[in-house]
C-alpha cells in the first residue's frame, strides 16, 4: 500500500552509528559509559543484635553469606568488569539473562520473579554539580536473607539507610531482607522527588525569564533539553511504578505480609512522582507556547515603533519635499511667513498623528 | 542507546534546592508551611439525644471517647507539633505510616483500609481574599464510633455541618460515624464546586478582556497561573474520586448499607467536579490560542496603518522629488500652472490609493 | 513539594461568586433559573383500549394512579415549587436524594436503580429562535406501571409521542411502562441529532465565511461560544450513553426482554450522537487554526503591498534626490537631455522591479 | 453551576435545519439522497454444481428461495421504495428495527444477532470520477442458506465476486452462506484500501505542492475537505472493525468453524485499514502546520526584500538630501569634486550594506 | 445527517491509482517491489553434534527435512515466484491464507496459531547506504522441528545467528526450534534498536542545525520524511509487540517452558523499542514547533534591522528636507554656521535614537 510512493531523499547525512551486534542472548557485555571503574564490593551483614561492614575490591569476599543467619546487603559498584559479575552470578546461581540485564545499562526498569529470588532493575537519577543529568543503571537481587545491588559507579542515595543500619535507627535492623529491599527502593523514590524539584526549579527560572522579558536567544534549546530530561525521568519512573505495583500484588514468599503496608505506601509515593512528572511535562511543553507569544509580542512592539516613526515622518518629509520643488511659480514660496506657516502645519500633523496613535493605545 | 549523545549544557543555573533527606519510613516530620501554629483540639460528642462540644489546646482531652456510647468527632487543627500527633496516634493505635501521612502535606489523596479504621487523606481548597490559592492538607481516621480529622490550620468548610450537629438538623444526629464521614466529605466536595466557580470567573474575566481588546501585557502570566491552579485542583480531585469510588465499593463493616446511597451520590458529585475541571482546563489552554490570535490581529492592524501611510506618501514624495531636481532643462518647471497641475496629479494618486485600500477592506 | 514556590498574584479581580452553602444532603432546593413557573401536571393514562389525559395545576391529581391497571405517564412541568415535588415524592415514596436530584439542575445524567423504580436524570437540549442554547434538566422515575417525568418548564420534544399515544399509532399503546420509558428517551436522543445538526450548520457558516474571506473581527468569540456549546452537549451526551448502556445490561424486572432490542437500538443511536459530537468538536478546534492561517495570509498580502510600493519608490526617490543636490559641479545637470535620460532610467528601474516581483509571484 | 454566566450571542444566523421528527421506532423511512431509483432485485442461486442468476424489478422474485437447497444471494438495489423493503421484510420475518435500519442511511455500521439470522450494517466507500467522495449505506441479512444485501443504488465492489461465483473460481461455490458473507465483507474491506490509497494520493499532491512552493490560495479549504473525508472514512471503518471482531468471536451456528480462519484474516485487514486511517489522519492534520510554516517562510522573504531595499536606499536618500539643502554656506558644495566624492561615499555605503546583508545570509 | 451538506470540490486532481482487484481470499499474488528476484533456498540443519548447510535455487531441496531428527532452518529469499511458494506450502501443508500472507508485503505483523505450527509475520527494517528507509516483509513458520523464514530479498540481520549456529556458540545448538524462533526474533528486535539509533541521529542533526542557525529552506520536507519514517517504524513495532506478548502467554506445545524466560526478555526489549519510538515521535513533532520559533525569531531580527534603519534615517531625511525648501525667507539658511548647527542636531538625533534602541535591547 505504501509501496508505490516515490521516495524523497533527506539532504541530511545518514550516520549509521550504533551498530548493535546481535550477540547471543545472555551474553554479559557492559554497555554503559563508565568503563574504567574497578569493581568494589561493600558487604553489610546485620540483624537485630549484630552489625558488620566489609569493603573490598575482591568479589569473592561477597561469597559465603548465604549461610549466615544475618541479613546481608551486598553492594557492587562498577559493572565494566563483566567477568566479576559472571563469577558472582555463577556463585549465586543467577540466570544468564539476569547477568546480561545487570550490565545492560539501557535496560528499562522491570521485575522478574524467579523461584529463589526477585530481580529488580531501576534507575538512580541525579544532577551533577555542573547541571548534567545523570541516569545510573541499578539492579537488585532480593533473596531469602540477602539483597545484592549492582551500581555503575560510586555514590548513591543510600547513605541515610547505611546510617540507620549502622546506628540501629528505625525498623530496618529488626526486619528481613524484604524490608531492606523496600528501604532501598524507598530511598530511590524519595530521591526522584529531589530530582523533580530541581527540574521544577529550572522550569520556573525559564518562566521568570520569560515573564521579566530577559530572554536570550537560546531558550528553545534550553526548553528542548528540559523536554529530554523530563522524558528520561518519565522513562525511569513509569516502568518502576509498574514494578512496585506488581511487588504490592505478588504472592511470593520472599515478602512478608507486614512489609506489604510499606510497599503500598511506596506505591503511593511513586504514583505521586509520576503525576508530578506528567504535570511538569505539560508545563515544559507550555513554555514553548509562552515563548512564541513572547516573540510575537516583541515583534508587535518593533512593528509599532516602525509604524509610528514612518507614519509621522513620511508625510512631513513629503510636505518639505513640496516646497523644495523648483517650479517657477509656487505662490506659497513668496509669502513672507510661508516658512513659519508650514512649520505650524507640520507641528499640527505631528501632534495629530501622535494623538491618533495614543488613541489606538500604541503609545 | 542514549549513551552516545553529546550533552548540551543548560545556561540556566542549577538550584539544587529541596534536598529531601531520606528518613526512615514512618518518621513523623511536618512538611508544610504553617509551622508556628499551636495544636488545637475540638471534640464534638453526640447522638440522637446528646450533644456536647469541647475546645481545648491539650491533646489529652481527646482521649477516652472510644468508650462513650456516643459518636465522637475529634478535630485537630495544626500539625507542626508532631509530638502531639504521635501521642494521639499512640493512644488510638495508628500505624506509623498513618502518622507520617497525617503531617506530610504533599501526600496525595488516598484511602487505606485497616482492620479497625479507615484512613482517608484529602485536600481542602480555597481562595484567600487576596486571591491566593490555598491547598490545605487534611486527613481523617474513621473508626467504629468516632471520626478524627487533622487540619493544618484553623478555618474550614464544616461550619454548616457543625450547625446541623448542634441544632439536630438533617439526618446527621440520627446516624453513625460512617454518615459523619460522608457529611464531612460531602462538605469538601461541595466546596470544590465553589472553588471551580471562582476559577471559572477568572477565566471569563480574561476572556472578556480578550474579546473587548483591553488586554495588557501580562496576560500570559495570568494564564500560566490559571494553568497551575487548575492542575493543582485536578491533583486534589482526581485521586479523591478514586477514594470515593473505593469507599462505595468497599465491604468494610465500618460503613452501613444505608449510608451507601449517600456515598453513591457523593461519587456522582465528585465525578461532576472532575468533569468540570477537565472542561475548564481545556478552556484555559484555549485562552492561549485566543491570545495568540488577538496578537496577530493587532499586528495586522499595525501593519495596515504602516502600509497605508507608506504606500500613499512614498510615491507622492517621489513626485515632489522629481521637481526638486536642478537640471538646467526641465520643461514642466517653466509651465505657468505646472505647480498646480502637479498638485492635481498628487491628489489623484492620493485618492486612487485610498480607493484601492478601501476596496481591499483595509480601511 | 510545591510549597517553596513564590506565589505570583493575578492582576485579575477575584469574584467569589457562587458561594454554595453546604446543605444537608437530601435537601430539596431548586438551583435553576426558571424560578417563577407554576407547577403543571399532565397525566396520560392508557392501555391497549383506553386513553385519557388530564391537565392540572394541582399535584394531587397525580395521586392514585398506581392502582389503575393502565400505564400512567405523569409529566410535571416547573420545579421551583419544591414543596409540591416533596409532596409527590412522599406519596410515591421517592428517596430524599432523588427528590434533591430532581430539582438540582446541574446534576449530571445518571441512573440509580432502586427496588421499586429506576431513577434516570438526563438533559433536554434545544436552541431558542434567538439562537441561545438551552440545556433543560429533566428527570424520570420508571415504576412498574407508571413513568413520572420532571421538567423545568413547558415545551418538550415529546409531542410526537403524545400524538402516537393518543392516536394509538406504533407499538406504544400495546406495551408497558418500560417501552414508554424507551420512547421518551428515544425522543430525547433523536432530538440530540437535531441539535448537532444545528451546530454543524453554524460550523459550516463560519467555515464558509473563512473560505470566502468575509470574516469580521469577532470570529474568535464565535468559535469560543461554539466550543462552549459543544462541551455542554458533550456533557449531556456522554453520561447518558453510560446510562443507556447500563439500561441495556441491567437485569431489573422493570424492563421486559422484548424491550431490550429497542434499548439496544437506542444505545446505538446515542453512540452515533456521541461520535458526531467528537467529530464536530474536532472541527470546531480546527476552525481556530484555519482562522490563524487566514490572518497570516492577510498579513502576507499587506506586507507584499508595502514591500512593492516601498521597494519601487524608495530607489526612485533616491535618484531624484541625487539631482536635487546643489553641488556647484554636477556634470549631468548641464546635459541638455539629462532630465529625460533620467526619466528613462527611472522607468527602467520601475519596470525592472515590477518584473522582479512578478517573477516572485507577488503580483 | 454554569447558570450564572451571561450569554454571549453569536452573530451568525441560526439555521434550524434538519428537523428530525421523532417517529415511532421501527418506522421505515428512507433518509438518503437517492430518492428516485426504482428497486432492482438480483438473485444468484448456486451450489457446487449449480449456478443461476435472475435480474428483476419485482421484489416477489426474491421469495421462495429459502426452500431451495442452494445458497442464495439476494441483492436489492434502491431503498427509496420502502414499501418493497417492508414486503420483503415481512416475507423473511425481519424485525421492524432491522427494516428501519436498512433504509436509515446514517445508521452507523453494526451487527445485531437474531436467532435465525445476523444483521450487519456497513458502508461502501468510493470516489466518483469527479472526485466526490461517496459513502453508500449497505446492509446485509445472513441466514442459514441465504444472504440478502441492500444497497442504495446500482454499482458496487462485488463484480469480482460475481465473476468467481459464475465461473466457479476460488472456494466460494463449495462453501455456505457464511463464506459468502465473508467474501462480500472481504470485497468491502479490500475496497477501503483503494479508497485510502486515493486519499493518500491527494495528501501527497498537496505535500508536493507545498514543497515545490506552488501553493495557491485555497489550500486551507482543500485540507479541510480532506479532514472531513478522513473523518467519514474513519466513521465507516472503526465500527466495522468492532463488527468483524464480534463476528470472529460470536458462537452463532450460522458461521462454520472453517470460515473462522477467513474472518480472522478479514479482521486483520480491517485493523490494517484502520491503522492506515489513523496515520493519514495525522498526516492531514500535519499539512496545516506545514502550510503555516510555508506562509511564515514566505512572509520572511517578503520582509527581507523590504528591509534590504529600505535599509540601503533610505540612508543614501538622506545623504542626497543633505546636499540638496539651501544653506548659504555649505563648504562641500564648493569643492570641485564634491559631487564625485559623495558618489564614492554612497557606493561605499551601498556595498557596505550589501556585505552586511550577505553576512547575515539574507541574500 | 450529513446528507444535506453541499459538497466542496477539491481543486486537486483525483488519481485513482492502486486499483486493488478483489481476488479470491487465499490467492497467492506477490504485492512487493522486488519482482525480478530468483528464489533462493538456504537450509541449515543442526543439532548439538551436527551442522550442515545447503544453498540452492531449487525449492525441492527444502523438502524431506521434517523426518530428520535435527532442527532445520529453511530460509527462502525472493517471494515473486509465487509458484515456488505454493509448492512449498503444499508440501508443508500451509493454509492458503498463510501462503497469501507470505507474499502480501503490506500484511501487518501478526501471529496465527495453527495446530501443527505457528505462523508469524514481521518486518525487517534498515537504512540503505543512500539513506533510504527499507521495510522488508518477512514471515516465519515455526513447526515442531523446523523453522521456515520467507524474505523478499537477500541480505538480513541474521548473520550473527548463522555464525553462532555454525560455530556452536551460545545456547542455540543445544535447544529446539522454539529457541531458534526466539533467536531469529531477537535479532530482528535488536536491529530495531539500530534503526531507531540512526533515526535519532537524524533528529539530532536537524536539532543541531536549528540551534546553530544553519537551517536551509527544505527542513519542513526533512521533518515530514522523518515523520513518515517514524510512523512506518511504529507500524512495524507496535503489532510485533502484541505478537510477542501473545507468544509469551500462549500455551502451545511448540514452545518449551525454558524458552519462556527468553521470550519474556524479548518482550521487554520490544517494549523498550516501542517506548523509544514514542519518544522520538514526540521529538520529531516538536521539531516543527522549534522550526516555527526559529522562523519567528529570524523575522523578528529582520524587522529590527528595518525598524532601526528606517527610524533613524527617516527623521534625518526630514530635517534635510526642511532646509532644501525654496521659501524666500528661511532665517536659518542665512546663519553662518546654520549648516554645522544642523549637523550637530542630526548627530544628536542619531545617537539619541541609537541610545533608545540600545535601551530596548534591539542592538
Automatic annotation (TrEMBL), chains A, B, C, D, E:
Q: Where in the cell is it found?
A: Cell membrane; Membrane
Annotated membrane-spanning segments are 305-325, 337-357
Q: Which key words tag this protein in UniProt?
A: Cell membrane, Ion transport, Magnesium, Membrane, Transmembrane, Transmembrane helix, Transport
Among SUPFAM superfamilies, the record links this protein to: CorA soluble domain-like, Magnesium transport protein CorA, transmembrane region
Q: Provide the membrane topology annotation.
A: Multi-pass membrane protein
Which residues are in coiled coils? Answer: none
Q: Which Pfam families match?
A: CorA (PF01544)
- Source organism, top-level taxon: Bacteria
Principal cellular location given in the protein's record? membrane
- What does the UniProt function comment say about this protein? Mediates influx of magnesium ions.
UniProt similarity note? Belongs to the CorA metal ion transporter (MIT) (TC 1.A.35) family.
Q: Which NCBIfam families match?
A: corA (TIGR00383)
Q: Which PANTHER family match?
A: CORA FAMILY METAL ION TRANSPORTER (EUROFUNG)
Instruction: From the Swiss-Prot or TrEMBL record, give the protein name.
Output: Magnesium transport protein CorA
Amino acid at each position: 500500500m505504501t509501496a508505490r510512493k516515490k521516495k524523497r531523499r533527506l539532504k541530511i547525512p545518514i550516520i549509521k552509528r550504533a551498530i548493535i551486534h546481535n550477540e547471543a542472548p545472555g551474553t554479559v557485555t557492559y554497555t554503559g559509559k563508565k568503563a574504567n571503574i574497578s569493581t568494589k564490593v561493600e558487604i553489610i551483614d546485620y540483624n537485630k543484635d549484630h552489625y558488620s561492614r566489609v569493603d573490598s575490591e575482591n568479589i569473592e569476599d561477597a561469597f559465603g553469606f548465604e549461610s549466615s543467619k544475618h541479613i546481608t546487603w551486598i553492594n557492587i559498584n562498577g559493572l565494566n568488569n563483566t567477568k566479576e559479575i559472571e563469577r558472582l552470578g555463577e556463585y549465586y546461581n543467577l540466570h544468564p539473562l539476569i547477568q546480561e540485564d545487570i550490565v545492560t545499562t539501557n535496560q528499562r526498569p522491570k521485575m522478574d520473579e524467579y523461584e529463589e529470588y526477585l530481580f529488580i532493575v531501576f534507575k538512580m537519577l541525579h544532577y551533577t554539580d555542573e547541571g548534567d543529568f545523570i541516569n545510573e543503571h541499578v539492579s537488585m537481587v532480593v533473596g531469602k536473607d540477602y539483597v545484592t545491588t549492582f551500581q555503575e559507579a560510586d555514590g548513591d542515595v543510600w547513605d541515610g539507610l547505611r546510617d540507620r543500619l549502622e546506628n540501629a535507627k528505625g525498623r530496618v535492623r529488626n526486619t528481613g531482607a524484604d524490608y531492606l529491599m523496600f528501604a532501598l527502593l524507598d530511598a530511590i523514590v524519595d530521591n526522584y522527588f529531589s530530582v523533580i524539584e530541581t527540574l521544577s526549579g529550572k522550569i520556573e527560572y525559564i518562566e521568570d525569564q520569560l515573564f521579566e522579558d530577559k530572554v536570550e536567544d537560546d531558550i528553545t534549546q534550553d526548553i528542548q533539553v528540559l523536554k529530554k530530561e523530563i522524558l528520561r525521568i518519565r522513562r525511569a519512573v513509569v516502568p518502576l511504578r509498574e514494578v512496585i505495583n506488581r511487588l504490592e500484588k505478588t504472592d511470593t514468599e520472599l515478602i512478608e505480609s507486614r512489609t506489604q503496608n510499606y510497599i503500598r505506601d511506596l506505591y503511593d509515593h511513586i504514583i505521586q512522582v509520576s503525576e508530578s512528572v506528567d504535570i511538569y511535562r505539560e508545563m515544559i511543553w507550555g513554555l514553548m507556547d509562552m515563548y512564541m507569544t513572547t516573540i510575537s509580542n516583541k515583534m508587535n512592539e518593533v512593528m509599532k515603533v516602525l509604524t509610528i516613526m514612518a507614519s509621522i515622518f513620511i508625510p512631513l518629509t513629503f510636505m518639505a519635499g513640496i516646497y523644495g520643488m523648483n517650479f517657477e511659480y509656487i505662490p506659497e514660496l513668496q509669502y513672507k511667513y510661508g516658512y513659519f506657516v508650514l512649520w505650524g502645519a507640520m507641528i499640527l500633523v505631528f501632534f495629530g498623528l501622535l494623538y491618533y496613535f495614543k488613541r489606538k493605545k500604541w503609545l
